[in-house]
Amino acid sequence: MGFTSRPEACICKHFLEAVEKSKYGWFWECPSGGKCIYRHALPAGFVLKRDKKKMEDKKNEISLVDLIERERAALGSSQTKITLETFLAWKKKKIKEKQVLNLFLFHYMLPWLLRNK
């Protein structure tokens, strides 16, 4: 807001404060009252301070894809590549482990639980 000769071209500081603090609404009244000579409207393209902070935070964020790629690169090249075949083999192995665990629990833990009721 540069210096202008017309005060109505400037934005009211109370209005800006109310908008920034989300207090501006239907029943908001300027503390200067009806005699306020400044504008109570935002100019086109005006960006609020809180929105500037959000935009700066978004600039600093990295995308999920970039994060995954960065973490994958940090693991090194000795890791197993994930393909459909390696995934299915891993999944079969996990299902088998779960079945063995359930079998153990059924045969060894269930009688113990029934005895110690």
From TrEMBL:
A zinc finger (C3H1-type) spans 11-43. This is Jg9825 protein. The lineage of its organism: Eukaryota, Metazoa, Ecdysozoa, Arthropoda, Hexapoda. Residues 11-43 form the C3H1-type domain. The keyword Metal-binding applies. GO terms for biological process: cytoplasmic translation. GO terms for molecular function: mRNA binding; zinc ion binding. The keyword Zinc applies. Belongs to the ZC3H15/TMA46 family. GO terms for cellular component: cytosol. Pfam families: DFRP_C. Keywords: Metal-binding, Zinc, Zinc-finger.
